[in-house]
Structures are given as C-alpha cells and as structure tokens.
Automatic annotation (TrEMBL):
Keywords: Hydrolase, Manganese, Metal-binding. PANTHER family: METALLOPEPTIDASE, PUTATIVE (AFU_ORTHOLOGUE AFUA_6G09600)-RELATED, PEPTIDASE M20 FAMILY MEMBER. The Mn(2+) ion enhances activity. This is Hippurate hydrolase. InterPro entries: Amidohydrolase, Bact_exopeptidase_dim_dom, Peptidase_M20, Peptidase_M20_dimer. Mn(2+) binds at C118, H120, E154, H181. GO terms for biological process: diaminopimelate biosynthetic process. Signal peptide: none annotated. It comes from Actinacidiphila glaucinigra. Coiled coil: none annotated. SUPFAM superfamilies: Bacterial exopeptidase dimerisation domain, Zn-dependent exopeptidases.
C-alpha cells in the first residue's frame, strides 16, 4: 500500500472522496436558497439535518436560528468549528445554473433579492463535510468536536446572540475556535495572516436635524441636505488629515437619505458611517472625530438642535493566536501543498468572529479560548484565466469581491480545499493518532 498523500492526516482525510459529492450538493442547494440575516430558518434546518446524518448531537434555535453540533469522542481538547448561515440583500448576476432567484422581506418588510454573495454557503457546506469526515474516522482522533452554524453574521449580531444564549455554558467550552472565509484567491488555495486578519469596526448612524420648509423659500428653513453634504466631505479629512499615513483606517459614508421630493426642504437627513481600524484606540479616536465634525457642521449650518450619533453595530479586530495559526498553516502546507498556502495581508473587512475568542470568553466567565482564522480561495481556473491583469495582485483587484452580485465561488476546487483545510486544522488541535 502506498503512503497517503495527506501524510499524518491521511487516516481521516483519505475519506474525503466519500463526503465530496454530498458536500457539493449541499453547497448548490444552499446557494440556490439563500436567506437574510436573522431569517435563516430553512438553512439552519438543512444544516442541522446534515449534522444529524453524520451522527452529531444537534441543538437548534441557539441565539436565533443558530445550530450547535456536538460529537464527544473520548478525552482530549474541545475544538469548535464555526461557519455562518446568512446571505445578503444582493441580486445575483452570475448567470450560474444554480443562481439564486430568492426574494425576501427586509427589516422594513420590503421585498429584496437575496444572494449568498459572501460565500457563507461554501463555509457551511464545508463545515458539514468536515463533521461527516471526522465523525466517520473517530478511531483516528480523540476529544470533543463542537460545530457552530451562526446566524446574522452580516449584521454583526449572531455571535453575541449565540454566546448570550449559552453557547459557552450549555455546550462544551472550546479550547480553540477555528473558522475560514472565502476570498477572491484561486480556488484550492488558503491564505494566512502574520498579524491581524480583519479589522474591527463601528457602524454609526448620524441624524442631522434641520427645519423643513418650501423649496422656494430656503431662507425660512434650515436645509439638512446641505449640512449632510458638508458633513460627507468634511468626514473625508478624518483619514486624510487626522490619521497617520502608517496606520490603516477606513471611513465610508455608505448611506445618505433625506427628503421625499424636489420642492420640499426636508426636516432631517440620516447618514450611516462605517469606520474600520485594527485597534480599539483607533476606532474610538475616529468615532470621536465623527462626533466632533458632525456636531460642528450642524452648528455651522444653524441646525435648531444637535445631531444624534448612535452606534448601530460594532466588531473587534480579528487577531488570531499566533501559535495556533502557525500549527494550522503547517497542516495546510502538508495537506494542500506549500505552494497553495499564501500570505494574507490584513484586510479592512470585518467579522463578529473575535467574540468567540478572548473577548467573548471573558464576558462569559470561561478560561482562555484560542482562535485561528484563514482565508479560503474560491475563484475557479477559467474565471482566473479570463480576469485581466498581469500578475496575481492585478487579477485579484479585477475579480468581483465578496458582496458583489458577480461573486461566484467554484465549488469543484474550493469544496475539497475547504473541507481539507478545516479538517486538517481541527486535527492539529484534537488529540489522537492523527496529530
Ligand atoms: Zn460578508
Ligand atoms: Zn462573510
């Protein structure tokens, strides 16, 4: 018998062909039927069924539609693997035969198109495949496997809701939490960061209070549209004039709403501002600058009262544990090949994943919880070849990113790589012969 190409991970990973077909089928089905954050009922039920089929003990309805699977397999560490359930209000434009045509009511009850434009369907299918692979090879590892299908990641509320609903009290407390996320890298690859993986964020809502009136007599009103426009421009100086060029900070005004028609001066304007940085100090500093500028611009416009500034959502930077990341990276080099393991430069995307680590552990009175998080390539070879650009960096800049209507993971290569990466990572942390 020839030795397994998967080395020490062979006894478990050699079972991959057995789980690939159901995992790809699961992916296609999840992709075709996406659900918005907080409404992941069907997705959760499907995932729960898959875990039950694999032999895990399954609990549903944790912190909303959250799904927790547990597989106790003797003494050893508790390893938690996390994937997300939710999709985005995006109209899919991939033209794929399994493209989503789903429409669902948004928070205000308006029908919106829905698409898995962040790859959460791929993460979830790979989690199901990994659970099946580990459950089918219990003679080759020991410890406890916990799987989490998390709702409402895109609205940054799901991890907190699951923790508050007893994730770390009703279920085995993890020693380590692992997750992967799709990125526009070639399918079959993974990428690890050498420092922060993702930024922390604050989502701020700003309401500018003017006083409404007739468009014909603006001198009798205080126009919040003009104040809001000045605010949008002045906010651009927070990064360009107040932040060190050596520091990575992003400030984006992602929405601005005012008025109903052209012949009325509205009474108020509402902006949403997304702030991203790699440390709490920077996030607090930029948030304070937004307060200062918004208040001063409203005073300059003669607004009858101060604006309101509310934090709608917040997340922390994803700073994985260096030792755990190093072990997982070595396992990925061994199982995928060193040429398929790239370096990930810190991204200003954000996640609620850090709550599973030290911050969440402290909140819920449990001991140290380590984390590791890596990016999973998902661009198929044809799409990569078709994408203009001389080198990998130019191609990556030209590819449709996560959240784009044209985001289209290729499951033929990214499903096997995703299951391999997650399974090998789990085995580095579990006890037993495969270690
Ligand atoms: Zn996303
Ligand atoms: Zn995502």
């Amino acid at each position: 018998m020839s030795p397994s190409p998967n080395g020490a991970y062979g006894p478990v990973l050699d079972g991959l062909p057995r789980v690939l077909r159901p995992t790809v089928a699961d992916y296609l089905e999840l992709h075709r039927h996406p659900e918005l954050s907080g409404a992941e009922e069907r997705t959760a039920a499907r995932h729960a069924e898959r875990l039950r089929d694999a032999g895990l003990e399954v609990t549903t309805g944790v912190g909303g539609h959250g799904v927790v699977g547990v597989l106790r397999n003797g003494p050893g560490p508790v390893v938690l693997l996390r994937a997300e359930l939710d999709a985005l209000p995006v109209r899919e434009a991939t033209g794929l035969p399994y493209a989503s045509e789903a429409v669902a009511p948004d928070a205000e009850g308006r029908p919106v198109p829905v698409m898995h434009a962040c790859g959460h369907d791929l993460h979830l299918a790979c989690l199901g495949g990994t659970a099946a692979l580990l459950a089918g090879a219990t003679g080759h590892w020991s410890g406890t496997l916990v799987t989490v299908g998390q709702p409402a990641e895109e609205t940054l509320g799901g991890a907190r809701a699951m923790l508050e609903d007893g994730l770390y009290t009703r279920f085995p407390v993890p020693d380590v939490v692992l997750a992967q996320h799709t990125a526009p890298l070639p399918a079959g690859m993974v990428a690890h960061a050498h420092g922060p993986v993702l930024a922390g964020s604050r989502l701020l809502e700003v309401v500018v209070h003017g006083s409404g009136g007739h468009a014909a007599s603006p001198h009798l009103a205080v126009d919040p549209v003009v104040a809001a426009a000045a605010i949008v421009l002045r906010l651009q100086t927070v990064v360009s004039r107040e932040t060190s060029p050596a520091e990575q900070v992003v400030l984006t005004v992602g929405s601005l709403h005012a008025g109903t028609r052209g012949n009325v001066v509205p009474a108020s304007a509402t902006l949403e501002v997304s702030v991203r940085a790699f440390g709490d100090e920077a996030l607090e500093r930029v948030t304070a600058a937004v307060h200062r500028i918004v208040t001063a611009e409203c005073a300059a416009s003669g607004c009858p009262r101060d604006p309101s500034v509310r934090v709608l959502a917040r997340s922390q930077p994803t700073l994985a544990d260096p030792g755990t990341v190093a072990a997982v990276r070595r396992a990925h080099e061994e199982t995928l090949g060193a040429g398929r393991v790239a370096v990930w430069p810190a991204s200003t995307a954000t996640e609620d994943f850090p709550l599973y680590g030290p911050a969440g552990a402290a909140l819920h009175g449990v001991g140290e919880v380590r984390t590791a998080y890596w990016m999973l390539g998902c661009v198929g070879p044809e799409q990569w070849a078709r994408t203009p650009g001389a080198g990998a960096a130019a191609k990556m800049a030209a590819l449709p990113p996560n959240h784009s209507p044209a985001f289209r993971p290729d499951p033929r290569l990214s499903v096997p790589a995703g299951v391999t990466a997650l399974t090998a990572a789990a085995l580095t942390q579990l006890a037993g012969p495969a270690r």
